[in-house]
Design goal:
alpha/beta; 5-stranded mixed β-sheet; two-stranded antiparallel ribbon; 55% helix; disordered C terminus
Length: 533
């Protein structure tokens, strides 16, 4: 009897699915592993991240820091770009701003992955570990750009879509109310993730219309059009937002569409990206050939609608760059949620976990190794910040205006904004664009910063601006040698010469940057000439 019992129990053990508790434990462990580079690098080399983090510090410290209050003010407005602004300063009341930024970054990871799991659960009716395969994609090129509000909004869009699928066959008022609430929340996260939610809803409802094509067309059209009702509350918000002033600032570029697709997988190494793609494709083909994998039909409608939108999207939309190229990563998490894999057999479960750990391990090694190599430059830059007097005004320039595109230089693009945190400084590159951010400079310093979110001037352009200023130059370039206290020159070569000894004195020559102090003699000369007039 005992041997029979053992024989009958053995197949059950081998053919059991992962339980909800096991999936939750696996989710927790993978989140901890994925977060290691974030916790070990207080200032990760993400392009826009430090600029956003500096804004969070100003919002949190403005009332108690008179030097910052001299330069900046917060104008709370209806701006579709507020997720970080509303969350991080609150966290910053209890911890330092660097730790607050790390916590928010990990919240992004948790939000995206839990949303992917929830959407998969809504589509297939049971919890599955398959969406965990998306963990390695949390580090992607769009994340390296540092568009934190958009990344946070991707997770919320996944949760919104999961709620829509779950409530689709329930009473319509509940579904529309919940969708409207999600729509408003997505609007304040980022306008583009509201668009992602709209794409997903359109794809899901087109599929539903096709499934019920035997029903009267009028009834199906009414039901389909009702999907747009939750977006109505967003319309007055957008019309009342200063962001509408940027509606005409668009730019279509067809080149770079392939790059946008690669941004899903590529971080620092193309070899790593192609290796990961190869592993996933190989494992997927193996699972399909053995009848272990199925794809929800929503996936194909999502591919069709999302692909069409991606092709027609402009590169710049509402004066915001990467409008099209940031879309594929959001669609990738949606599509992964559409995959189901039979994990009843022990060999399949072990194979799945092995592939997941290999992919995640390769990605984490790539990230951590690269960030560790780049941390020396970050440490050196932060050390140079301490040589700046508190309350100073800082001009940022490039050695070459075409620089800053290399993925390993992204951490330097906005590094000067650290001075806002540690030296209460005014920095020309701080994000203070009306319609995009709620942080603005005070009127008397409006001409000291780049209010158009453009590329900093090159050193050559600064020299021309000092000697022969022109009306077509941005306002903050004019008379810079008499208005700013320091100049950061980024992306310099080793031992680059002083570009303007008459106006600048070298303070620190770092790797890929130089810090100059504006000569007081130039300021005095200008002051005396004004007095003579």
């Amino acid at each position: 009897m005992t041997s029979v019992a053992i024989q009958t129990a053995e197949p059950r053990r081998r053919t059991s699915e992962l339980t909800g508790v096991q999936i939750a434990v696996l989710f927790f462990v993978l989140t901890l592993l994925t977060s290691i580079p974030v916790w070990t690098h207080p200032l990760p080399p993400l392009s826009d991240y430090v600029n956003h983090l500096s804004r969070m510090h100003v919002i949190a410290a403005l009332e108690r820091d008179p030097l910052l209050a001299r330069f900046y003010q917060v104008n709370w407005q209806i701006v579709p770009n507020l997720a970080m602004d509303l969350i991080v300063p609150v966290i910053g009341r209890f911890v330092n701003i660097y730790l607050a930024g790390q916590i928010f970054t990990v919240l992004i990871f948790v939000n995206i992955m839990s949303g992917t799991l929830a959407l998969n659960r809504a589509l297939f009716g049971r919890w599955s570990a398959v969406p965990l395969i998306a963990f390695p994609l949390l580090y992607n090129y769009v994340f390296l750009i540092g568009v934190m509000n958009y990344m946070f909004g991707i997770g919320l869009a996944l949760w919104a879509m999961a709620a829509w699928v779950w409530l689709r066959e329930r009473p319509w008022p509940l579904r529309l109310i919940v969708s409207a609430l999600f729509g408003i929340a997505l609007f304040f996260c980022h306008l583009f993730v509201l668009g992602v939610y709209g794409i997903a809803l359109l794809a899901f409802e087109l599929r539903r219309m096709w499934i019920h094509r035997d029903q009267p067309l009028a009834r199906r059209l009414i039901d389909f059009c009702a999907t747009g009702l939750p977006f109505i509350p967003v319309i007055p918000l957008l019309l009342a937002s200063p962001t509408m002033r940027l509606a005409a600032e668009n730019d279509w570029q067809q080149r770079g569409k392939i790059d946008g697709l690669m941004f899903v997988f590529t971080v620092y190494s193309d070899i790593v990206a192609f290796a990961m793609i190869g592993i996933v494709v190989t494992a997927g083909v193996w699972a399909v050939r053995r009848g272990l994998m199925r794809v929800h039909p929503f996936c194909w409608f999502m591919l069709a609608v999302g692909g069409l939108v991606y092709l027609i999207l402009p590169r710049v939309l509402f004066s915001t760059y990467l409008a099209d190229q940031r879309l594929p990563i959001a669609l990738a998490f949606m599509l992964i949620a559409c995959i189901d894999l039979k994990l009843r057999h022990q060999i399949v479960r072990r194979g799945f976990i092995a592939v997941l750990l290999i992919l995640l391990g390769v990605r984490l090694i790539e990230i951590d190794a690269t960030w560790s190599n780049l941390s020396a430059g970050t440490t050196e830059f932060r050390a140079s910040i301490k040589r700046i007097k508190k309350g100073s005004k800082i001009m940022v320039a490039y050695a070459d205006r075409a620089s800053g595109d290399d993925v390993k230089d992204l951490g330097f693009v906005h590094a000067a904004c650290i001075a806002m945190i540690e030296r209460s400084a005014l920095v020309t590159t701080a994000f203070t664009v009306d319609g995009k951010q709620v942080l603005h400079v005070r009127p008397e310093f409006h001409d000291f910063v780049d209010t158009d979110d453009g590329t900093p001037p090159s050193v050559a352009q600064l020299i021309v601006a000092a000697d022969r200023p022109a009306d077509n130059m941005p306002a903050f370039w004019h008379n810079w040698q008499n208005r700013f206290d320091y100049v950061y020159v980024l992306f310099t070569e080793d031992e680059a010469p002083n570009p303007d000894p008459e106006n600048l004195t070298l303070v620190q020559d770092g790797e890929r940057f130089q810090l100059y102090r504006v000569n007081s003699s130039a300021l005095a000369k200008t002051a005396s000439s004004r007095g003579a007039r």
